[in-house]
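INTERNAL AUDIT FORM
Audit reference: QA-55
Scope: verify that the stored structure record matches its stored sequence.
Auditor: D.O.
Record contents follow.
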Amino acid sequence: GVNRHFQMICIHDRMNTATQKKISSKQIWAHLANMYDLSALHESEIVPFPNKELEFQLP
């Protein structure tokens, strides 16, 4: 969803703090992509604010 990159920062930090092995965010994304359809999850999220692109017009 919208916050996926912020959530990844948290996951990445916790994984690297909890283990002796350094894991890249790319490896975490790849593992999650094997387990879930990430694009479908992203599209299914309900956004709490308008996210529709509109043509800008001056009054």
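Auditor finding: record pair retrieved intact. The CA atoms of residues 52 and 58 lie 18 Å apart.
Action required: none
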